[in-house]
Fold these 3 entries.
Entry 1:
Amino acid sequence: MSASYPDHLREEVERYLQDMSFSEEPLTAGLEEAMRYSLLAGGKRIRPVLALATARAVGLEQHEVLPLAGAIELIHTYSLIHDDLPAMDDDELRRGQPTCHVKFGEGVAILAGDGLYAEAFRHLLRKQRSAPERVLAAAAELATATGASGMVGGQYADISGRTPPGPAALRRLHELKTGRLIGASVLCVLLLTGTADGPEATPFRRFAAELGVLFQIVDDILDVTGTDDALGKPRGSDERHGKRTYVSEFGIAQARELAAESHATARAALAELAERGAVQDGATAELEDIADFIYTRTS
Amino acid sequence: MSASYPDHLREEVERYLQDMSFSEEPLTAGLEEAMRYSLLAGGKRIRPVLALATARAVGLEQHEVLPLAGAIELIHTYSLIHDDLPAMDDDELRRGQPTCHVKFGEGVAILAGDGLYAEAFRHLLRKQRSAPERVLAAAAELATATGASGMVGGQYADISGRTPPGPAALRRLHELKTGRLIGASVLCVLLLTGTADGPEATPFRRFAAELGVLFQIVDDILDVTGTDDALGKPRGSDERHGKRTYVSEFGIAQARELAAESHATARAALAELAERGAVQDGATAELEDIADFIYTRTS
């Protein structure tokens, strides 16, 4: 297993995000600063890189989906800002830096998140050069994946303390909270190419869904086994917040087994794409690398 | 001046909002409850009613823009929930009822707002039956009107304390915070009909922009002269929050003059539409009623 992350795609995303600006309005300069502070705080850019790698797998040039990829990272950043708020997880550090509300105050942080979400749709709807009905379908999927039956619903389930016991509800919670946006990073590219219902779709959808699960299991393991330095925040925050995780539910050994199974399922879905002739030979190499990276990452 | 609000349109909006649901997911039932609590708390529904009245002015049936109108009210509700938060205006009452965060807690209120905003785009993009490129244009306008150089930017300017002195900056702040979404309630309908750049567009745009200004001036006056009962919250909240308003800037008498001028400008824009033959005779009657209502309202 290679686990060499496609850094060439990450760098392309990074440059694209650096060039984004949201408001020329002098009255809102401080808001722009808070939005860019959180957006440009680094990270692996897994979701937009996944969108670029999916584009390459289906025969597009990666730059053709950069507006979509950028929008997805804006949404991810917004979700981190709101998750970190005192009324939610109350985290003071993110990637080794003060979180948005610590740096700019709580009111500004709420608005920076709100603004990033609005600007994500504005950017996707104005900049993505695909047929209007396809941009529409991708934007609708993104709204669904991040709405009340998606990411925001999952975050609610996470903080509500009302999630029933047992692994099924835990998996469902994480499908919503983490999985839906990761899945959308793949699915929206298929929607832009009009192949979301074609023969490619089934294994691609399975890959997308499984990658979200894999990400979360590894995340839960790292919160227990990682170092503060590598994580960029204090280890053990899940336990302090009384959160149910794959580790609290199954123990560390079984969580590792689940991660291995999940990784194998994701890789098998990619292999099936090639077997079916749904993609060109070798076209899923970067997607394989991303799956391997998510499985083996240490931060 | 009649000032008879088009209640038949408000009732149609109300029924439509009643029928909306956001998530069938059992894990998120409490989120759905909070979203519907705030959405169905009443109010004049000025923005969606404005969209329906605009549709009738340009010769559509009002029900043809209900998905847009519903999306706009979801966005307005989200903005109220976030504005009321302790980190923002810290308001405990809205329309005589506990605000969302008082009733459900701060974390849930933040997510209820986030969820309503996502569901607004989901709803508009999935339900609005117009040509895809027109739905796309309307959704992009809505994202722009509510983003960093729109509503969220205006709310930032309002809480930042960094807005420069003088009436120009105050007017600009309110154009962003209140005016852009009210304007979009008219403009998005023109975008759905493909007439946003036609001969109707200029007076319509002037009407839409002016109505936002008028709304805010009257709002500022009512915060000083209204009764707690009529307002559904304690009077004088602007002063307690140290907010600059049309009243604090100009005094009550001049603010009333400005409101009268603004109302006259809005009415003149509608008259011009009829003179130009851009709309059928009498087609702007409901828009006139809305302008009159906004000018003369007491709550």
Entry 2:
Amino acid sequence: MSKFKVTFYPENKSVEVTKDTSILSAAISAGIYINSSCGGDGVCGRCKVLIKKGRVLSQSTGLLSEEEKDSGLRLACLTKVQGDAEVEIPQESRIDLQTAGGGYAELNPQVEEIQIKAWAGEKDFAYLPLTRKIYLELSPPGLDDKLSDLERIYRHLKQREKTPVLRTGISNIRGLGELLRSSDWKVTVTLVKRSGSTEITMIEPGNTSKRNFGFCFDIGTTTISGQLVDLNTKKQLGTKAAYNKQATFGSDIISRIIYAGKPEGMEKLHWAVTTGINEIIHGLTDGEKVDLNEVTSIACAGNTTMMHLLLRIAPTYLRREPYVPTANFLPVSRAIEAGIKINPHGILACSPGVASYVGGDVTAGILSCGLDEKKKLSLLIDIGTNGEIVLGNREFMVACAASAGPAFEGSGVTSGMRASAGAIEEVSIQPDSFDVSYRTIRDAKPRGICGSGYIDLLAALLKAGVLDKDGKIKALKHRRIRDGESGREFVIVFKDDSGWEADIVVNEADIDNLKRAKAAIYSGVSAMLRHMSLSLEDIEEIFIAGGFGTSLDIDSAVKIGLLPDLPKERFIFVGNSSLSGAQLMLLSDEAREKLVDIANKVTYFELSAEPAYMEEYMAALFFPHTDLSKFPSLKK
Amino acid sequence: MSKFKVTFYPENKSVEVTKDTSILSAAISAGIYINSSCGGDGVCGRCKVLIKKGRVLSQSTGLLSEEEKDSGLRLACLTKVQGDAEVEIPQESRIDLQTAGGGYAELNPQVEEIQIKAWAGEKDFAYLPLTRKIYLELSPPGLDDKLSDLERIYRHLKQREKTPVLRTGISNIRGLGELLRSSDWKVTVTLVKRSGSTEITMIEPGNTSKRNFGFCFDIGTTTISGQLVDLNTKKQLGTKAAYNKQATFGSDIISRIIYAGKPEGMEKLHWAVTTGINEIIHGLTDGEKVDLNEVTSIACAGNTTMMHLLLRIAPTYLRREPYVPTANFLPVSRAIEAGIKINPHGILACSPGVASYVGGDVTAGILSCGLDEKKKLSLLIDIGTNGEIVLGNREFMVACAASAGPAFEGSGVTSGMRASAGAIEEVSIQPDSFDVSYRTIRDAKPRGICGSGYIDLLAALLKAGVLDKDGKIKALKHRRIRDGESGREFVIVFKDDSGWEADIVVNEADIDNLKRAKAAIYSGVSAMLRHMSLSLEDIEEIFIAGGFGTSLDIDSAVKIGLLPDLPKERFIFVGNSSLSGAQLMLLSDEAREKLVDIANKVTYFELSAEPAYMEEYMAALFFPHTDLSKFPSLKK
């Protein structure tokens, strides 16, 4: 079959592909991530590329204007290679658009000891990490002590361990005789508990017990966050976040599931997520001079689709009635079975899920905020691509998912970026002059706007009278207000003052995305309370979670109608609660057992089956809401 | 590197090898098994081959006579290929010399239901096979029952199972969603208990539960015996035995362990044993029209060296002081991890061992004869290449190994063969005429002599006055008595009356081998009793085990001094007790648990460390013994 060379610019990266390969696939092969919300179906129109040279065949589409077509723009998914070609990928068509550090963001560079404790918890969870290393100095066998090599290790361990059932795999036994003798009977064993018994996953010569590391991960639809933890000192050595490269195959869960059903779809999605995970692992271990062989375990939390794709479990039936997962409780497996590259004997544990749209990220979130321990009624709102909402206390828990989209994660909005250095996270606007003040993460030059920045920005635009309740930018005469390609726009930072190559703006299309996201969350909360015959006043504490930076302005979030109008002291911002839950999982066996209890206790509530939901949603498509009586503090 | 073609005759089988490959290695590559007791060290002189054509380079050796050298004979292990060559392998240099059916022997062609019971046991063991298939008709999920696919299976099983902890591997989960739906929620799960929890090893569409098969194996140093069992009906569908192809690399355990330490030695030994196992599996399943995918488990008993080699665990330290195994208790693993080809999800369980020279064959033997349940003192004597002896009862058990060699397995003796069709198993000789009467297994034309036949033969030769107490054949004038290459010999069947291409004989070298074997066993028993300050009279029951046919004449065995002179009613012939134990293991969880108890209870007794042993051995190198007072019944 004839092969053609496709070169992508500005990277100047080439890749050889067969005839009729789409430009989208070719880009993926070249390691370049093109935006494609619909997963290559030619529906979203986001994967525009410029054909500079060469023979291609494009399917006609209404998603490109005549001017765009004339200038050489094509949709990457509908364009097939017919000969050698050169392709330019515009910034607007890229994923990882404005992220510093090659797609990564360091969230917490400082070394901190982790409190193994829920936010609202009363006591610490007992420390017992997912994998433990124990250094053994065995007595060598003699004529009066002829116990076999393996049972000698077991005997030694049984004197120390509470869970005495010990087992190991053949691969650890094969060279054991030589290993014990060449290491003078001094070895380090790595232990993991699974299915109630303690297993030796690895036996190493000498004392390696001082070096034992793990990772916790939150695998989100849009963002993957990982943290390197020293399992001995409980210190977090670094955190990185990166966009989930699966976004190339669709921006939301549904499009990913559809893509997984295409030929090689599953393999590509699996490859994309593990590549992201491996890059984060590589980045953090490299920086901390941790050898990959010293990483012995991974604790993962993520929504049900993400967990299925990570383990290459077909997600097909997650989106078919009656929407059941293949498995909610996933067995502890070897990390390499999921393509994750740590120590070859390293293990992977996944947080258990509840239902197709309430996954292990939600149970991990409940664990980390301690909602399951609360006496009084509490609410957990996780603002992500799937906005998950949990209502309950130690007696009961109900959870639902509100499809919010990735806008609050800085994806799918013109100047959006993840909460990392240079992201605008706080904004205020002078009412008359429209002078803008802002604060960026780590006070770096502004490069874009992150979720908390957008919440502040919308609140500020409303307050300054730039934005009306419907989400339209008023046609005011000001140098910051102008018409753009996606409707009227407001310039927050002009190019010259920014650390970016364009003005940092928000336009009406962005505002529409943000409005839909906040409406989905708010109406989810309302519908759920209504279904349970409860009112907002019954709620004592509201945990707000999400991949924002270090803060989220609750006032602003109420002002735009994202959060319900309740006394400020009832809100607790808990950050990435899924990652925090995975962190607890990594460090405490008690926490891991609690997760199982939580997953068994939570009842799934199907929002779309609730007749009131659509009505609530439509009513919430205003700033803050069509029914102002719900926002009494704003009436003043 | 240049490659040369070596062709072996009379098979006319060719193989391509690199320059300097030994003829022995080339033969192994061609699938032809040459005798080599020393494992290719050029010491035993058994691997004589005839170089018919071609360039070879031979190391000089005193093990070939000048006549042999002149006629073109060389030792295969000391001869290296220098060009294309043609090699004839004489019958005497072959393994599987006289075995019917391509190296296999069908021992029990009839279909019998197995009694799950020890010989001396009072009650049956509870039936619960190693792997069980359970057919499930699941209720499909609905809007009011949204349990995940995997937990749906668990729920269903938990209603039926006593051991509720259930787990499975990722590979069984991956395609589960599709499998359940395409099979209309009717599936068969295969369960195995390991480390105290029940595991699903396999999920198949539809009802396959009616077809569930297992194999039990006794892996001996010289002989491998396997049996196909229907795990549902408890019927044994067939038994086959074959010589262990590892014999090419040495006839006893020590030479195998040494060979394992050579480059690629371990791989070759592992390959040899698994090839043998796979051939037996293939032969029996083929004959019974059982698909390999329907075979879900294997229970193996074997000595410690055999188990180490089967699982590719280095056996190095088994023969170095203080002689400890790498592991006595081997984890239940996948059969394919040991290279055994059954269902890819099929599992392998090995009987636990006690020490380097008292292995899982002994614990299985104890289980099958029920020695561990006896109130009074009992003895188990397993007559094999390693003669194992167990003394004890329900209070205590002591075991030792007496290196007997393979003579009683029909190996290393001129006309020896395994107990299979055509093997002479009973012999009597008229005192004056020296007329020989014999009975062969399945009344086939005689092809050789098996273990029980040799015992009878020696007793008959003594009785007829042909053999003196020292093991020499008297120089009597008779057509059956003549001088041969290996000393004087006695012809049992002349070529014309046999089903074989030569006279069936026994010579003084054979008798010497048999004498050493019987002396090793007898003196082992004596030394052990002496060490425990017990006498023969204290023993209530003696279980005699070994790979003989259906019978063994106890009188003859006493007459030649193999067994102690005790009343005949105290002896029980139990056949291959290791295989019977493996059979119980395959069919009963209770038996599997008992095996663990037995292995923990048995104390190893090192015969070579016992000062009296050598003295006892030397005294036993007579027929029946130098001290006739030990054989009062023969004095008459």
Entry 3:
Amino acid sequence: MSILVLGTTALDTVKTPSGVRREMLGGSAVHFSMGARHFTKVNLVAIVGSDFPKKHTDFLTRKGVNLTSLIVEKGRTFRWAGEYHGDLNAALTLSTELGVLSVFKPRIAEHQKSIDNIFLANVDPDIQRHLLSHMSSPRLVGLDSMNYWIDHKRRALLRLLKEVHIFVANDAEARSLSGEINVFKAARALRRMGAPIVVVKKGEHGVIVSCKDFLFCLPAYPVEKVVDPTGAGDTFAGGFMGYLAGRRKIDAMSVKKAITFGTVMASFNVEGFGLERSCCVTRSDLERRYRHLKAIASVC
Amino acid sequence: MSILVLGTTALDTVKTPSGVRREMLGGSAVHFSMGARHFTKVNLVAIVGSDFPKKHTDFLTRKGVNLTSLIVEKGRTFRWAGEYHGDLNAALTLSTELGVLSVFKPRIAEHQKSIDNIFLANVDPDIQRHLLSHMSSPRLVGLDSMNYWIDHKRRALLRLLKEVHIFVANDAEARSLSGEINVFKAARALRRMGAPIVVVKKGEHGVIVSCKDFLFCLPAYPVEKVVDPTGAGDTFAGGFMGYLAGRRKIDAMSVKKAITFGTVMASFNVEGFGLERSCCVTRSDLERRYRHLKAIASVC
């Protein structure tokens, strides 16, 4: 019972109304790992530069993340800098330095190729496809992307969509890729385009899951002070996919529980800068918020 | 078991991507009545001009709405014209003709003064207060308002807030009146300002209820084709308050059920122009969507 996540490992500089943090450990694969590690063994596939601080690899190892397939390449680590204003709903990117990410070709250790739960976090769809083609027995494959790839590598993304079980997108991405304004129609269109389960993330407005047999809408966990939303979507995906990785059956009940755990994990993420809060969550913190969210969302 | 609603009776001209309708029956008190009539006897307090078509009063009477306190004043009926684009989330007001609404002073029939469930739909807070002062035994009072009054009659509105049990606002209004950006904080602040139960409507993103003993978040009913959202908030309030009017206890269970019925009623409203769809809802339509929404929103 383990999961493999392909994505980015980054150094993030973030400014929000709560303050500034420079060169924090971040990236989609890292945030995903924080969400997933409570439920399953996480294997990270990413690239960092030779400047990547040892304290970060030590930290990830301490958190139980397997780094066998983390490439350390000569050069600089991928860096992102962004800023949030007002209600913190949208990030303003200040700078992006790809560094070694521009030459990233995932290399997976032989013994990891049989891992059957896979999450393709947001990187170039060609890299996502390349990785997937090396996996010997995919049982559950999740896919994330972003507007840049929807606009610039649409065909590659659409082709990949047919090979995955779950597509995770925010509402703008779902609308853009499907061409539908209505979010429920967008989700159904994306299912017709290939992924049997479509998860649409709406940030503070919660999440929608559309699949053949059921529809599920869950509000976000009520957070009164959002400190830094960077990585919330990846942490959500980690909780969601991590929980499913440990389930034998992918059905309405397991998907709903997975979505709820993902939502709870994302709520911890936004309460601190970077991994500050999400890295220290205990299983009982998780369970407490799960019960609370269930009570808040349950119709009598 | 009945409810009295103070509000507007209007002739609405609406343009949406689905088409145009001219001078339809509308107004906050009318939409509210469509939501509430399934649960309780509705008594409407409003004003129309001498040009108000008899077919509309006949229609309301047929729908069981008591029009004893509907004033017919010499002059023109209140008219509103608006337009919706894109995802239909915001109305663009094209014109407002107050007509007789500018001289509105509610007059309530003597036998209606003892009605103990009251909804003060969006009109001038001074008029809302005037009406409330004439009610002999308020048991449950709901209040709605709008940004115009928040900006121009803030003090009158804040005073009124202390005299009601439930305040219903959309998210922008809740933020504006409370001065809090975070919607959960805004709801709590509004409770401190007077109303023990605060309902924040977020349109397609559902609704939040904040009160001392519990928090409840419900997604909107999934509607794939929104034809005309005019009056959705009032129809919601009608279903919500109408259901509560028939309950002995106002507790977590009755409030959650009321919110769910309100949400369902609003979903019918947006599926047609004006009252086209909401006026023809049967009790079994209501129950069916209630069960569906419950399934969609329930965490395992």
